[in-house]
Structure formats: C-alpha cells, structure tokens
Amino acid sequence: MRPHNTNKILFSASDIDARLDTLAEDLAAGCRDRPLVIVGILRGSFIFLADLVRKLHVHGVNPQIDFMTLLSRGSGVETTGKVIIRKDITVDVKDTNVVLVDDILDTGRTLNFAVQHLRDKGAAHIQACMFLDKPSRREVPIEADFVGFEVDDVFVVGYGLDYDSYYRELPHVAEVVFLDE
Ligand code: XMP
Asked: Would residue 106 show up in a list of annotated catalytic residues for this protein?
C-alpha cells in the first residue's frame, strides 16, 4: 500500500443514516407488484445492503436477498477494466424485479456487466441502487436509479469500501489522502 491517511471524513455515520432513511423511502415507493429480489455485489455492498434492507422493512418491503461476487479491481486502487464473476446468485430472478445494490458507481463497467447478466437470467425489471456515485469517472454510459451520495474523483474507504481489504469496517466514508503525491 502507498503511504496514506484516512483522516478526512466525507460522510459521517449520522449523515449516512439520515440519507438511507430517504433512500429507503424512495425505493419502497417504487416497488412494483412483481416479486422483488435484492442482489448485492460483493464485497463492497455488504454494509450498505444490510442497513438498507432493514430500513426497507420499515416500509413493508420483504424481498429475497442474494449476492454475487464480481471482480474488477486488483488489490489497490486501479480497476483492471475486465469484470469476472467469482460467485453467482442462486435465487431465480426470472420475471422478478431486481434491485442491484453496490458500494460505488465508478467507470460503470461492473454495473453494466451485472445488469446484462441479470437480463440474461430473465429478470423482468432491473434497477440499480448505489451507495456512492463518481459521475466524473464514467466510461460506460449507465446511471443508477437511486444514489446515496455523489463523490468527486477521489479514492474513498469505509462503510464497506476498502483499500487493499482494509477500512471496510469504518462507520463513515473517508477520503484516502496519498502522502507520496
Ligand atoms: P466500476 O464502476 O469502475 O466500479 O466498475 C468497480 C468497483 O471499483 C471499486 N471502486 C472503489 N472502491 N474506493 C473503493 O474502495 C473507491 O473510491 C472506488 N472506486 C471504485 C468498487 O468496488 C466498485 O464496485
């Protein structure tokens, strides 16, 4: 890992909690008649998804929940550009509404791949709910239906997001400030 610190907090735990309340309200309002499957993309989505589904429960939303592990990044901060499936979902999504949940929408390659994959499995309607969005980094023309917060082009950690598998446990989101730049 490059020398860095994570002292700069962008979103506190209470900022996140308050934003998730409104996000869950918006998501619940859009839930349609068909069965709902929430698919989290591992590993970054695990904390966001866990908090989100408990807030959705308050609105009477009772989805099936599954996860898929997609890999697009090496151990550090760079994306490799190629998305591969390490672990697929096991729930049958045919004719269901799927909400894809991930930690961050960056180049868009991961989400684009996941949407295509679920379409191929016969999902009737697919929406994306991303905790963070870095619109300035987009390389694939794709947008999320629901976004927690927008961020600038900085590397962020916490609330599920990692640097070399560290910092996922942070209850807030912090910017990684590199000291060798
Ligand atoms: P894209 O949209 O480029 O996103 O396919 C791929 C994955 O890259 C990770 N990512 C980050 N992870 N801090 C992180 O911890 C970041 O600032 C960041 N930017 C992208 C993330 O896992 C995403 O799913």
From this structure: yes
- Burial of residue 133 (CB within 10 Å: 0-12, 13-18, 19+) is buried
Residues touching ligand 1 (Cβ under 6 Å) are 44, 72-73, 79, 102-111, 155-157, 161-162
Could you give the domains of the chain?
4-24+35-73+82-178 (3.40.50.2020)
Q: How far is the CA of 60 from the centre of ligand 1 (A)?
A: 31
Residues 6 or more apart from 87 whose CB is under 8 A from it? 42, 67, 68, 69
Looking at residue 73, its amino acid is R
Q: How far apart are the first and last CA of the chain?
A: 13
pLDDT at 31: 77
Question: How far is CA 118 from each of CA 2, 87, 92, 95, rounded to the nearest angstrom?
Answer: 36, 14, 10, 11
pLDDT class for 147, splitting at 50, 70, 90?
Answer: very high
For the chain, percent of residues with pLDDT exceeding 70: 95
What is the pTM (predicted TM-score) of this model?
Answer: 0.94
Could you report the per-residue pLDDT of 83-108, keeping only the tens digit for each? 999 999 999 999 999 999 999 999 99
Catalytic, out of 106, 133, 162, 164: 106
